Amino acid sequence: MNPTVRRLAKLLSRLPGVGEKTAQRYILWLLTADPAIAKELGQQLITLRDELGPCERCGNVAEIRSGRALCDICADGKRDARVLCVVARVHDLVAVERSGTMRGRYFVLGRLLSPLEGIGTEDLPVVKLIERIRADAVSEVIVATPPSVDGEATALLLKRELASLPITVTRIASGVPHGGDLEFADPITMGRALAGRQRL
Fold first, then answer.
1. 191 CB-near residues (< 8 Å, 6+ apart)
2. What is the reported pLDDT for 188?
């Protein structure tokens, strides 16, 4: 295999869900397709981190405008700021949003509590979450962490940390498979899980 193709395949195979064979297939396709596609893709990748970043309010993906990053959801005045859905990752936010039943706003933790991976309470943005709850006069926090061991541990941690606040803390209902990622839940399952949420 050509050394350039090998280097590029090694880089592409670092993406989630892309193995070495899939990476090679992408490269070979790009070499035989319209050259404009490869050039446009390359240009978009070069500017990706300059144009997009985490939303400064919730952690969602946002366009950087005038040095600030505010996502479309946080900028939407029609959203109910009193309802805050806490998710582990942006992928989970996208899955919840796809259900079409969440009209509040979001807060992305960025990770889950996981002692085995060395992720403790101090590694989660709990203080920032509490500040957001107070600033937006939130009345309900929906904990939408995955129904996995780490997701449940994170939910219990949030229940404890938010217990002193005058808010209702709810947890998405079952309906999402145990041990599964929210990213792969279909919209109907995700909608039922949100509709059937329970107090923690």
1. 99, 100, 101
2. 76
